[in-house]
Amino acid sequence: MLPERGPDGRTAAARRARRLVGTRTAWTAVGDGEFFCPTCGGDRNYQRLTGRRRFTVLGVPVLPRGVCAPTVECAACRGHFGTDVLDHPTTTRFSAMLRDAVHTVALAVLAAGGTCSRAALETAAAGVRAAGFEACTEEQLAALVEALEEDTGRFTGEPCVAGLSIELHEALDPLAPHLAAPGRESILLQGARIALADGPYTPAERDALATVGAALTICSDDVGRLLAAARTPS
Hints:
Elements: H1 12-20, E1 21-37, E2 42-57, E3 60-74, E4 80-82, H2 91-113, H3 118-131, H4 138-155, H5 160-172, H6 181-196, H7 203-215, H8 220-231
Antiparallel strand pairs: 1-2, 2-3, 3-4
Helix pairs in contact: 2-3, 2-4, 2-5, 2-6, 2-7, 3-4, 3-6, 5-7, 6-7, 6-8, 7-8
């Protein structure tokens, strides 16, 4: 006759043995901060923990059984996660990254346009305000582009847009892995609308937008398709 098993699949003898002997993990907090909790679906406080396993008899630790991998514990749901969860930006940080990205793209496209027409400035300012810089004005963007052109020409002798390619990668490279394809395309299309506000793309504007697409990990064929679609009235 087979021994009777409980709901957990263990026999009564196995359950008694588990109560007598087992393994316990002692956790030690080594850091804290704020992270995006996958279980809660929002920003939460966390503790970074290290753990040591010990063999127990009657609940008393008697022998070390090694260390556990570092763990992140959510202060709200008490869920445990691998430390790679900290690579995901918090909601607050993600919003700031997105805002800075849109602002940098706007400056790069305006600088590439050469003259900063009123229509391009209005389109750029509207996009930057929608991204989070609510007080942004056309005059502020024009002054920034002018200052960038003066500083870049003075120190490097290169066109402003060439210097801004570094800023584009700095703003977009960390953001791209956390954006779905429609989000990455939306940033590129925002830049395209600025470029088209005062007429067809110039070669410098196409180069700037190609840099934006590359930093957003959009392949060159898709960049061409999106730029052509932005040029076609809906």
